[in-house]
Amino acid sequence: MNQDTIAVIDLGSARTTDLARAVRALGVYTELHPHDLTAEQLAAIPNLRGIILAAGPRRAFEGQTLDLSQPLRDAGLPTLTVDDADATQPDLDAFIARTGAKRNWNMDNFIADQIEAIRAQVGDKKVLLALSGGVDSSVVAALLIRAIGKQLTCVHVNHGLLRQGEPEQVVKVFREELGANLVYVDAVDRFLDKLAGVADPEQKRKIIGAEFIRVFEEEARKLDGIAFLGQGTIYPDIIESGTKTAKAVKSHHNVGGLPEDLQFALVEPLKMLFKDEVRACGLALGLPESMVNRQPFPGPGLGVRCLGAITRDRLDAVRASDAILREEFTAAGLAGKVWQYFTLIPDVRSVGVREGVRAFEWPCVIRAVNTIDAMTATVERLPWPLMERLADRITHEVPGVNRVLFDLTPKPVGTIEWE
Ligand code: XMP
Questions:
Q1: Domains observed in the chain
Q2: What does the pLDDT read at residue 344?
Q3: Which residues does ligand 1 sit against, CB inside 6 Å?
């Protein structure tokens, strides 16, 4: 990394991550470190120019005697002792000026640095990547293609639980536009056969996860000479995994635990980026807006929105209603504003009437929520005319649906997904 660095040391502030992001927004690269960082570890941080001590009431280190004076004295660097919510942007700006750190943290420099680092790590070897089409795996793919081109093989497993147009978009963007080596695996029948008759949500998740690994492994074994596995690990994955330093990374975070016996070394070029930086990186690499600014989408996909035992006709209804919802949210200017919105189809039917004939069909439930961290969520207040339009379109355009309901439940008590 050619960037100058400011270390943010977590002494229990609830704002540690915000501080790190705020300094990056001012153009200087930051790293988060735990309160028990040793003088040696501090000295090992490349191009370290300053230290921010993020203290606060959370007391992550409660019960321990904290004496950072020696490591900090040894480091001999400008230090900002921040008390919780007090450091304003001008304070941080002035502190950066005091450290003399170069303000060269930006996506162009990040991409150039990572291309160099990836080439140095990989050499002339080959890298394999599970490309789901989600933001993180897509951005890693684009970065690896830029760095090593055809030495990367991407495997896209279509398990039949993706949203409308997603598998096609992956093929179009990565194979046709970016010229990637892309293995597209149509595993739809295989997944749906395995899931047939399984109504328990946890059982469904397990089947989807295990089958994904099986398909991916099969494809990996068909390829010769793979030495590395690309991973879309990002900085919040590392921070949230509770590991103490960025070096002791939990390695299989994003692919739901690929088996150890695959024996690949990892390439994780996004592991120091926050989510908004990952999106900026994707845009800088030429990925389409619609791919980079996607709302969160669960690993088991539409499988947990086709409630109970999955059937193909109800799955089609989930996919079609979700597509209408996304289209209407985009038209109403809500697409980038509401955190997560989707439809689900319960496994019940009710009586309705369609063109004078009894229609015994499913309801479609709309969920639209806002949250910071997905631990709690509030319900978006949708404009009534939009709700009426959604009810009209979904009941007329989605076969098998005769009612539209809106879920008014915040989290808690309801979780965001229904399963
Ligand atoms: P809940 O339903 O727990 O959802 O309130 C919180 C967030 O997590 C997503 N979610 C999942 N993501 N695998 C995932 O990768 C899962 O099994 C899963 N279940 C829920 C959900 O979409 C929401 O963003």
A1: 5-99 (3.40.50.880), 107-292 (3.40.50.620), 311-406 (3.30.300.10)
A2: 98
A3: 205, 296, 298-300, 340, 374, 411, 415-417
